[in-house]
């Protein structure tokens, strides 16, 4: 069994499922909204909340940074202005991290560049998430790996060979690795989820913990992923799917997140231990729904019983139908009224 321990958290390859609420930039650049999202996600039962950190000017080319970005989801006239509007600085991050701690959840973040890694190190982050887009960014992966903190690596839009390359690059310095099955569709339709790839990841990387980072709508896929072996689930979270922004449409609102956590916990309860037992509460149902052997009519003492003398009826009476061969051909010791239970101690 593989385990990863960090901060207040422990994750196991055997479960239970570790649920991360991906807040990302669904806070709309508003600190109060971000704080409310942490509180609500914690009440929904998640183990961690996650944000995204970018140093935009070092991350994007000047052309891309200054590219016009005029659409319904934009918070600025250029893409750079849009991204800067959504970013928090160190003081805000300190407040967010403290809020997570006060609400009993782990504070996590995705680092998109070297400066953001340094930023999060100054903050005192206990783990790192790496986005799918950086799966082949071996220099960044190596930079983070050398910090010896758990790494959660998404695998969207990548080949198995590229996943292996990333894994081996990190493994040189750090064996605390969680590979997250992911499909880079926003949202991802169900026919593209390819959840059975989770089994492939478990087979190909037996020393890693396997998880699922979902962009699907709804809560079904994460439950299936958990049953296939993904013991970490990351789902995008919002307070309102109708809000401005590109990620809200495939995010879970509070009630959806609560039900997601509930259903993941129900998996552990429902699977049981594989042993077949009769629960105490089943005995009454067994009696009510089962059948017993009764007399089909009045029968005198001394009667040798035949098929014409017996019937199978509900409720069960202590003499189940499978004992019929022990009754046929035997002699009654007492008189029986119609529909009297026939037990073996009445026979000779």
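^ structure tokens above, recovered residues below v
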């Amino acid at each position: 069994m593989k385990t990863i321990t960090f901060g207040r958290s422990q994750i196991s390859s055997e479960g239970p499922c570790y649920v991360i609420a991906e807040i990302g930039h669904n806070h709309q650049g508003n600190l109060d909204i971000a704080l409310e999202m942490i509180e609500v996600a914690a009440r929904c039962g998640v183990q961690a909340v996650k944000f995204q950190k970018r140093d935009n000017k070092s991350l994007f080319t000047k052309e891309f940074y200054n590219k016009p970005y005029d659409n319904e989801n934009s918070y600025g006239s250029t893409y750079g202005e849009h991204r800067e509007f959504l970013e928090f600085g160190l003081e805000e991050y300190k407040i967010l991290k403290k809020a997570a701690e006060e609400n009993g959840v782990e504070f996590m973040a995705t680092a998109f560049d070297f400066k953001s890694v340094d930023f999060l190190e100054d903050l005192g982050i206990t783990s790192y998430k790496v986005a799918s887009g950086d799966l082949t960014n071996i220099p960044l992966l190596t930079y983070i790996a050398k910090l010896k903190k758990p790494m959660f690596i998404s695998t969207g839009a990548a080949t198995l060979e590229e996943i292996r390359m990333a894994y081996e690059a990190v493994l040189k310095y750090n064996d605390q690795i969680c590979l997250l099955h992911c499909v880079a569709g926003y949202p991802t339709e169900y026919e593209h989820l390819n959840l059975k790839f989770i089994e492939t990841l478990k087979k190909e990387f037996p020393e890693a913990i396997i998880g699922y980072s979902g962009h699907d709508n709804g809560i079904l896929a994460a439950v299936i992923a958990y049953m296939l072996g993904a013991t970490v689930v990351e789902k995008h979270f919002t307070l309102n799917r109708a809000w401005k922004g590109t990620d809200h449409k495939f995010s879970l609102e509070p009630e959806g997140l609560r039900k997601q956590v509930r259903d993941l916990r129900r998996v552990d309860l429902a699977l049981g231990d594989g042993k077949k037992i009769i629960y105490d509460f089943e005995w009454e149902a067994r009696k009510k729904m089962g059948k017993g052997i009764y007399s089909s009519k009045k029968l005198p003492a001394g009667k040798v019983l035949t098929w014409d003398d017996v019937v199978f009826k509900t409720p069960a009476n202590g003499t189940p139908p499978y004992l019929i061969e022990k009754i046929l051909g035997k002699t009654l010791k007492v008189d029986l009224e119609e529909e009297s239970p026939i037990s073996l101690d009445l026979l000779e």
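The mean pLDDT is 97.
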